[in-house]
Request: fold
Amino acid sequence: MSTNDSPIHDSVGRASSWAPSERELERIAQRKVLARKRIAIATLSSVVVLGALVFAVVTSPGFTVVKETFFDVSYGRAVLHLVVRGLVTNIMLTVIASIAIGIIAMTLALLRTSRSAALTPFRILATAYVDIFRGVPLLLVILLIGFGVPALRIHGLTSSVLVLGTVAVVLTYSAYVAEVLRSGILSVHPSQRAAARSLGLSNSQTLRYVVLPQAIKRVIPPLLNDLVALLKDTGLVSILGVIDAVRAAQIEGSRTFNYTPYVVAALLFLCITVPLTRYTDRTLLRSIDRQNAQGAA
Amino acid sequence: MNVLDVKNVRKSFGDEVVLHDLSIEVPEHTATVLIGASGSGKSTLLRCINLLDDIDDGSIHLDSEEITDPAIDVDVVRRRLGMVFQSFNLFPHMTVLDNITLSPIRVHGVDKEEAREQAIELLKRFDLADKAFQFPDRLSGGQQQRVAIIRSIAVRPRLLLLDEVTSALDPVLVNEVLSIVRDLKHDGMTMVLATHEMGFATQVADEVCFLESGRIVERGPASQVISNPQLPETQEFLKRVHEAGRL
Reply:
């Protein structure tokens, strides 16, 4: 990607006085012209496409009504604090859930990749678990657990919708994240295990010191992806009556028949998810660069 | 006394038999060199000795103890063996120093500071002290393989297994790796090596075994097997090696 531009070294690494040739200067000038042309084209096409989109929305027959019911700025300001308070619930839920998901998913991934005979029943259970929770819509799991568990009336078991909703999210996401971790573990080349084992490391030491550090590093981008999805999906627990950002907006919106609170909630989610997705993108590109560099070495 | 006794070992992958009734003895402080074409069974034999692959028949003994006994703890056996691979297999997420001290600290229970000092000593001896805190991908192939050799001897193995340790290297880097192996031989390390470097084999081998299709066709001192081969198969193989410019 970036080569060091200064100072200039010859083939054996000694600094030498080098001045670009006539031809090289020409090429630099040419590249500048081409770059300027590219920027001009990109700008023009963006203006045309985005302008057409805005025009289509603004000139649509129902636009004035939509503007009043979805983009009422002063009303939006008034409900902001309510939605923010709801969003705090989403964030708390995300933090707590991701810790639980990390633990459960790692256990599942280790079980599924283990070859020990003693763990066979657990391996089968782990596989069944992953199959089931990846195959059922999250919304259904939330409904089943949120309404099903309290109906059991087991003494001492919580009937808090917040807790039950979180449990449902954790159960589903653990299955997804377990698969991400498993693919990371399987992507570490067998020769790394062979090297570790031949140094006398036990199976679990090999996992801990050699396989897992490399596996986790590789799956950080997809894990960050899942974190973004998790934050958004915590909004689904609102169906149980948890007052999160989505529910807070819904309560307000149905009271005044104005949907601006939904837009406020959407914008607040974006405030968190956009930086996260940008960051995910960057780590992904960096890890690809790193792998390419290793492949070339 | 022999450090290693391989007795009548047979190994197959599916229908393909890769080692037929193969036996070698390696006395202490000696080097046994395995030569032969790719696929002749050299690497498989080394992997079987290191218990990375199970054998079908026969037995392998380390210091007269049978290590192919199913009840034996393979981790304990491997603590007495060192293995160096063709593809280095350094741990890319660890510095050179951590690569070397991992097994001494975690497996052999050596104190962390002591393990580091010993590792630095070894690195100094083989001119790699300035690389101690680098990651493997910053090193040349020859440097990586030297670190891999140091990593395998840091635990003072009874027997060192080297599997074509120069085959993945640039020709100009081969010698810096071979010179380490020569030094280790000089120190009295007992070893079994698979190699295509015949000149090097002649220098370090106490016994050379020429393998073809999983059988030892000819064995003896290098002065016989390499310099004056008796059997037509060995002569043919060495002729091909010679044509490839490796002799």
Observations:
- Residues 60 and 66 of chain B are 6 Å apart (CA to CA).
